Amino acid sequence: MGSISHNTVLRNVFHAAIIAVDPYASVKPHNAKIRTSYKKGKFDKLILIGFGKASCPMAEAVHDELRDLITEGLVITKYGHCKGNSRGAITVHEAGLCGRNTELALSFAVAVQGIDGISFLSSDTNGTDGPTDAAGAFVNGKTVTQARHLGLDPEDYLCNNDSYNFFKRINSLFITGPTGTNVMDIQMVIIE
Q: What is the per-residue burial (b if ≥16 Cβ within 10 Å, else e) of 55-75?
């Protein structure tokens, strides 16, 4: 390779890749074409739709370049992947933080609300439920009523797939830390 070290080559390739995926660099070459098409009447609405982890930075770049043309937009991304909220006509919705066990536990709590003498635990045996630090959550027939007294709407948390934050607010997460096993999910019910 001559006098260029392998590390230098790898560093240069890395930086070229980062530049290639820069949202502003990706949008800018299309700006004039979109504006020309708009002025020629080829379309009268520009609706921005984005999904996924990279959708927020891309939507931000499109918004900054074409904000005067954007009629409306919706960006749905993974929890924690947006720097800010909605921009102009673009609504940003971050999916909540959850795992399958906290979602199951919250669904169970809604189903058994008002029933005395029933308790439920849904948990992952490895100690982490999805992308969270909780293994799962505890619920009972009073969980929903107690949450509503705190101003929480369980159905909203389910719709937003945000059961982790629901249970965090009511102090009902089951946190074990890593267990060193990954056998299965486990659900247990006690009925008095």
A: bbbbbbbbbebbeebbeebbb
